[in-house]
């Protein structure tokens, strides 16, 4: 399954990012939206936590069985699984540092820069944030845990799972989700009062990574928002946020069910493991993969503390990239694997020509929380809130994932217009004929999803604070971006071009989502609180579709091994062939669990 497949590897996240066609799985889906919300009421972690072996650079061994680049959600999950029997040595190299202080959106634990401007979104450039700490983006994100649908995960196999035994579909990944997460149940009284549904069959019971419902008091307005959304024709209520169906749902967050502190890869797959064969080197950046012929034999890395000397370490069995949707493609290109034109311009010798590296880049554009606000704040619950971890925790979270036919009566006309596009019409000019053919397969899947009641095209989170909704208005963008090198500074931060809105289908969907949200909040049941629009298109009672519009190749196979190279794999979000209609972070953990199984099986 070329999770990068025959398409470009825009290698991935995080979040949220996430090649295309699984035999084309080359799609980056990550941080455009995944890191916008930092809701943590999480408590500081115990500073006495014991770790496996945290090594200094002078103590790094000459050789390990496995070297993992990146200590984020995917990297630490795979590192834990590969080292748990004690028979294999594992080194994880992380750009950031090890920290116990987890307090949400903290710039000191992030790398940030700007994307190129997107003409399709009125020449807007976007902030990019990735986690730069042990735990990765999962240590700073909003902790929301929502999966994609059955149709979306089955599309992974359609686009690249060529083997009959492929694990890249709903059933295969469901076992990964069960292995990855343990469910923390909601408060019984709140569950009864607000109709909070869940089904434990979609969750595991043994993982130290938790998806738990908060037990803070809900604002009664959330119940009004729930009932109002439920009354809309065709909106269905999902039995569980992990059931693989779109609709109205309560969802858990990545938090401990007792302390309500953040639950992420560091707490689940690093803290307290006490393994002499599991090493972590922090404060160092991997610059490239080292090869003997076309076989990966190690990595070259440098200190992030101003020390310029380059060091190297050898891998006996495999080098595994999990550096984020942005840095993994960059490392491949710096290693001589990628599009010839990009490598030539940067003065890098071509080892393996793979045009898909850095392409098929997708993400979830998100409308900020302050886009809508209440004129009159709805009254909070009059129940006293206990001064306990449970009382201070977030309340249960509510959202709706909406298929296009539920959002709009224009779904069929939008699908027909998308179907009529030629495959290469709105793709970057650098795409090869093979990449265009790969996208044609994706476009067929996209068209089916535009018509389907089983795939969400927008996600609306409903809350009881000062802002009634947050809108993820593009769960399945048809526009494709690129990640590339800066030819003047190839080792600097990669050049990110979202090309957001470059395909007119995305603008058409955005218009319908905008109208849906405006109509929803215009209900008489909310009138006394005066929901007011501050963004998401032009403001006003009478706004036309036109005014809203004006405002706005394969890299790896089914085993996640890089084409043309040996003993080199990628396990982060960059191997997702398409974006999914949920938060990317949860899927990253499930894919990482399956990746670890594949790596173990081939290295017995």
UniProtKB/TrEMBL annotation:
Taxonomic superkingdom: Eukaryota
Residue ranges crossing the lipid bilayer per the database entry: 12-39
Keywords: FAD, Flavoprotein, Membrane, Oxidoreductase, Transmembrane, Transmembrane helix
Keyword Flavoprotein: yes
Chain residue ranges for the region called Disordered: 370-397
Residue span, Glucose-methanol-choline oxidoreductase N-terminal domain: 324-338
Essential cofactor(s): FAD
MF GO annotations: flavin adenine dinucleotide binding; oxidoreductase activity, acting on CH-OH group of donors
Annotated InterPro entries: FAD/NAD-bd_sf, Glucose_Oxidase_domain_2, GMC_OxRdtase, GMC_OxRdtase_N, GMC_OxRtase_C
UniProt-annotated binding residues for FAD: 286
Family to which the UniProt record says this protein belongs: Belongs to the GMC oxidoreductase family.
Protein's UniProt name: Glucose-methanol-choline oxidoreductase N-terminal domain-containing protein
Species name: Fusarium kuroshium
Upper taxonomic lineage: Eukaryota, Fungi, Dikarya, Ascomycota, Pezizomycotina
């Amino acid at each position: 399954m070329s999770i990068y497949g025959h398409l470009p590897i825009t290698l991935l996240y995080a979040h949220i990012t996430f090649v295309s066609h699984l035999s084309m799985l080359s799609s980056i889906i990550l941080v455009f939206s995944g890191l916008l919300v930092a809701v943590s009421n999480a408590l500081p972690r115990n500073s006495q936590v014991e770790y496996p072996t945290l090594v200094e650079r002078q103590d790094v061994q000459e050789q390990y069985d496995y070297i993992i680049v990146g200590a984020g959600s995917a990297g630490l999950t795979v590192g834990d699984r590969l080292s748990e029997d004690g028979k294999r040595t594992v080194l994880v190299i992380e750009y950031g540092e090890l920290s116990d202080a987890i307090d949400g959106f903290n710039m000191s634990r992030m790398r940030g820069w700007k994307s190129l401007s997107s003409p399709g979104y009125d020449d807007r450039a976007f902030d990019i944030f990735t986690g730069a700490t042990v735990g990765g983006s999962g240590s700073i994100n909003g902790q929301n845990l929502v999966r994609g649908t059955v149709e979306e995960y089955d599309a992974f196999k359609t686009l690249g799972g060529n083997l009959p035994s492929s694990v890249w579909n709903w059933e295969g990944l469901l076992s990964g989700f069960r292995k990855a997460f343990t469910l923390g149940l909601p408060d019984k009284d709140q569950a009864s009062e607000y109709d909070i549904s869940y089904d434990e069959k979609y969750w595991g019971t043994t993982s130290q990574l938790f998806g738990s419902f908060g037990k803070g008091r809900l604002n009664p307005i959330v119940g009004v928002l729930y009932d109002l959304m439920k009354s809309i024709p065709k909106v269905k209520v999902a039995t569980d946020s992990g059931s693989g169906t779109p609709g109205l749902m309560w969802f858990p967050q990545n938090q401990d069910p007792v302390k309500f502190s953040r639950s992420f890869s560091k707490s689940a797959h690093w803290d307290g493991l006490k393994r002499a064969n599991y090493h972590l080197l922090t404060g160092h950046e991997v610059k490239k993969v080292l090869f003997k012929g076309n076989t990966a034999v190690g990595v070259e890395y440098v200190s992030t503390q101003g020390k310029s000397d380059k060091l190297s370490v050898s891998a006996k069995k495999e080098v595994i990239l999990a550096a984020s949707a942005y840095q993994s493609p960059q490392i491949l290109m710096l290693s001589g694997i990628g599009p010839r034109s990009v490598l030539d311009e940067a003065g890098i010798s071509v080892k393996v020509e793979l045009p898909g590296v850095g392409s098929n880049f997708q993400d979830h554009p998100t409308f900020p929380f302050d886009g809508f606000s209440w004129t009159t704040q709805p009254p909070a619950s009059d129940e006293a809130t206990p001064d306990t971890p449970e009382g201070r925790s977030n309340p249960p979270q509510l959202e709706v994932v909406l298929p296009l036919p539920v959002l709009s009566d224009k779904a069929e006309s939008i699908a027909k217009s998308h179907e009529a596009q030629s495959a290469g019409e709105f793709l970057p000019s650098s795409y090869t004929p093979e990449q265009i053919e790969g996208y044609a397969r994706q476009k067929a899947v996209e068209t089916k999803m535009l018509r389907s009641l089983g795939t969400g095209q927008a996600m609306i989170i409903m809350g009881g604070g000062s802002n009634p909704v947050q809108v993820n208005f593009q769960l399945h963008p048809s526009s494709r971006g690129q990640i590339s090198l800066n030819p003047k500074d190839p080792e600097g931060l990669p050049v990110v071009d979202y090309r957001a809105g470059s395909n007119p289908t995305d603008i058409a969907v955005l218009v319908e989502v905008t109208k849906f949200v405006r109509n929803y909040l215009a209900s008489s049941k909310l009138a006394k609180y005066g929901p007011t629009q501050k963004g998401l298109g032009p403001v006003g009672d009478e706004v036309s579709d036109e005014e809203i519009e004006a405002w706005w190749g394969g890299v790896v196979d089914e085993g996640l091994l890089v084409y043309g190279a040996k003993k080199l794999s990628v396990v982060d979000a960059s191997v997702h062939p398409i974006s999914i209609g949920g938060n990317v972070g949860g899927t990253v953990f499930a894919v990482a669990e399956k990746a670890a199984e594949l790596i173990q099986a081939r290295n017995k």
